[in-house]
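Please decode residue identities from the backbone states below.
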């Protein structure tokens, strides 16, 4: 728990003084009763209330006072609440390594099935967009609440060579937060002698530079990581980056916009790709990079080695987006609780001490 006015916590020093004052009043009352014998005789002949009852109302008032002092410090607690209207962007790997059959019937088929099931389980207040990436990235379905359109987009996936994880992440980020106006042109489609991974117009001998070059960008004041509550990104890949910008650099861009990136590593180390002899593809998940992306953006990394694992991951993510944790000021809640305790103290005091036996009934008993 945090406090917006922490200096007000010093007011709790009043609590011991109040307790000491109450104890002093009790002792003073007893001394006055002993001093007046007539009053002492009357009290002895009146049926006294239960010993514990006399202390209950003051105790309730003391607790109420403590709650009010705590409320004065304006406490902020992290509570779990139903998520408001939000946007989710799924960035899915469609490189040819997704043809591997270590996950039956294949990685791509299992991923498509799990993703479609995930979409159907999401509440209607969550809109979704879909980005696919291989050697480059593209939006295959713009943000929409229509689940049928999203399912059709997943069915249209076309596998390609290369794995540009950073490109997929940046495209998803631009889709989620278009108001940030990210300069994707210079990142995803660089011009000049240095093209991602070489190729036409580029120099293959400068592949390291093409992989890690960072384009010029307009300065923007960074937002706290994980502070954006309007949506999130889910990034699924089965391999490691072979081209495109560094995914850790892209993750930092997401963190600067407050966006969480949940990463999913899919597949096993023993995957094989049938029907593509003469080509070699990365089929082992780069878990370290995916963990780092999740950590930078204050999200989570998930490992899925089977179709059932992937289904469980998506079920967990569905719960994450249905209920979200927020920092909420609970001052009014504490003040309300204090008011209820004070009303209860007054009610019990009236019930126990103003409706007891009167003096005439006490004398008759004597």
């Amino acid at each position: 728990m945090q406090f917006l006015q922490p200096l007000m916590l010093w007011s709790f020093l009043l609590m011991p003084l109040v307790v000491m004052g109450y104890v002093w009043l009790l002792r003073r009352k007893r001394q006055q009763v002993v001093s007046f014998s007539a009053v002492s005789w009357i009290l002895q002949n009146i049926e006294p209330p239960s010993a514990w009852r006399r202390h209950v109302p003051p105790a309730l008032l003391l607790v109420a006072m403590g709650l009010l002092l705590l409320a004065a410090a304006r406490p902020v607690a992290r509570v779990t609440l139903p998520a408001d209207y939000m946007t989710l962007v799924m960035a899915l790997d469609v490189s040819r390594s997704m043809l591997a059959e270590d996950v039956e019937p294949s990685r791509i088929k299992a991923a498509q099935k799990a993703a479609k099931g995930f979409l159907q389980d999401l509440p209607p207040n969550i809109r979704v967009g879909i980005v696919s990436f291989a050697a480059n990235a593209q939006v295959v379905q713009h943000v929409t609440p229509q689940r049928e359109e999203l399912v059709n987009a997943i069915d249209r996936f076309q596998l390609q060579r290369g794995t540009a994880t950073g490109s997929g992440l940046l495209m998803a980020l631009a889709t989620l937060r278009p108001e940030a106006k990210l300069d994707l042109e210079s990142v995803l489609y660089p011009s000049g002698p240095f093209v991602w991974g070489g190729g036409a117009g580029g120099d293959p001998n400068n592949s390291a530079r093409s992989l890690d070059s960072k384009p010029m960008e307009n300065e923007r004041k960074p937002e706290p990581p994980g502070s954006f509550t309007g949506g999130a990104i889910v990034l699924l890949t089965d391999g490691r980056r072979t081209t495109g910008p560094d995914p850790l650099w892209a993750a930092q861009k997401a963190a600067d916009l407050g966006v969480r990136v949940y990463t999913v590593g899919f597949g096993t180390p023993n995957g094989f790709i049938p029907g593509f002899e003469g080509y070699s593809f990365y089929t082992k998940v780069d878990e370290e990079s995916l963990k780092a992306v999740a950590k930078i953006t204050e999200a989570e990394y998930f490992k899925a080695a089977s179709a059932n694992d992937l289904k469980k991951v998506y079920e967990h993510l569905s719960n994450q987006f249905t209920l979200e944790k927020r920092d909420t000021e609970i001052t009014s809640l504490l003040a309300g609780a204090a008011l209820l305790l004070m009303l209860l103290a007054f009610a019990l005091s009236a019930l126990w001490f103003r409706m007891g036996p009167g003096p005439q009934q006490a004398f008759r008993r004597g």
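Observation: The chain has a mean pLDDT of 80.
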